[in-house]
Predict the 3D structure of the following.
Amino acid sequence: MFLQRSGSQYSGGIEKSCALVGIAAGGGRVRNLGSILACAIAVIVTALLIWMSERKKAAVGRREMQIFLVAYTIVSIAEIFSVGGFLTDRARLVVRSSVRMGQEKGVEC
């Protein structure tokens, strides 16, 4: 093995674990800012696509595409809450994560 383990560190000063502590915001901490921003941009772009598809008069598959985009928006919003560190209650986090995984699986099909 390349690194020898001693206590909580490997040789060379590498820690066994690295927790994401996030950034301080308004008395709390935001965990994964990059994912939150990416999902927020995705929600905005998806809303724009839904609005643009509504303006078309004779688009084939327009309603199906709108349903898919709404489902994707719900998944993106759920991801903001699940990975953003906004939910502190463990039971709610488990329920929200399971709903999110089910939504992602439904969108894939």
Notes: Residues 22-108 form one domain. The mean pLDDT is 75. The chain has one domain: 22-108. The beta strands are 5-6, 9-10, 14-15, 23-25, 28-30.
